[in-house]
Amino acid sequence: MGKVKSHMDERILVCVYYGPNGERLIRRGYELSQFTNSPFYILTVDPLPYEEFDAEKAQYIDRWRELAEELGAEKFILKDNEPRPIVKVIKEVAYENNITQVIIGETPQNRWEEITRGSFVNALMRELVFIDIHIVSVDRALKTTDEAVYEKGIRGYLRKEGDRYVLTFTKSKENVFEGVFYKETGTDFDNGIFKYVCGGKSHQVRVEEGYVTEDIKEPSNIKVK
Q1: Residue ranges of the chain that CATH labels 3.40.50.620
Q2: pLDDT digits (tens, 9 = 90+) for 128-184
Q3: What digits encode the pLDDT tens for the residues 76-114?
Q4: What is the DSSP string of 92-107?
């Protein structure tokens, strides 16, 4: 990170919150930075201190830091324990870093309270004078190449069953991985994406009818019976 770009006319800030939308927004910001040959920054804001984040939140933070490094982001900025309105924090970060373009996501399940009330965009536009705002809708941000749309993530586990892994939502000593399951909308089966951390890195695998359909790098301490 901290790479010097050849052109500094544009500076991009990607604002992310928890959920599968975050990584796609970061990649959208990266693509825009490549097109304009400019640096990009990643910002997330939370009213809780980092020490009080649950496993799901911490997992997202780790993945975004990893992405920031991988894609050469100028900075990953975490504003935790933040009592101020989100628009005020975005404004502060934007002006501190001379940002010219801001990318945000807008979905029906967005947990940023100002967005759910419908006033967030207008408030942000009033605060960010002379800064372009890009709003990525759910139709563009939460779909994969096969057009699947996912529900809000829920905590889940993977348990070894023969030579396969099965998804379960019950905590047990038999579980091998703990993570977050994103179920596809419009299905009665456990079809979707399971995200977990192994070896200090974030991974994701496809789940169909409750079973993982991709190879998993197994932890060294697992005993296969």
Answers
A1: 12-141
A2: 878 888 887 644 444 443 444 667 678 899 999 988 999 999 999 999 999 888 888
A3: 999 999 999 899 999 999 999 999 999 988 644 444 444
A4: HHHHHTT--EEEEEE-
In 3-state terms, what secondary structure has residue 127? helix
Q: Which residues of 192-218 are buried (b: 16+ CB within 10 A; e: fewer)?
A: bbbbbbeeeebbbbebeeeebeeebee
Q: Which residue, among 4, 11, 3, has the nearest Cα to 40 in the 3D structure? A: 11
Beta partners for residue 102, in sequence order: 13, 133
pLDDT of 94: 95
Sign of CA dihedral 25, 56, 173, 198: positive
How far apart (Å, rounded) are the C-alpha atoms in residues 174 and 172?
Answer: 5
DSSP H helical ranges for 37-165: 55-71, 86-96, 113-116, 120-127, 138-141
* DSSP conformation class of 34: H
Could you tell me the pLDDT band of residue 187, with boundaries at 50, 70 and 90? confident
Name the architecture of domain 12-141.
3-Layer(aba) Sandwich (3.40)
Which amino acid is residue 33, in one-letter code? S
pLDDT of residue 141: 40
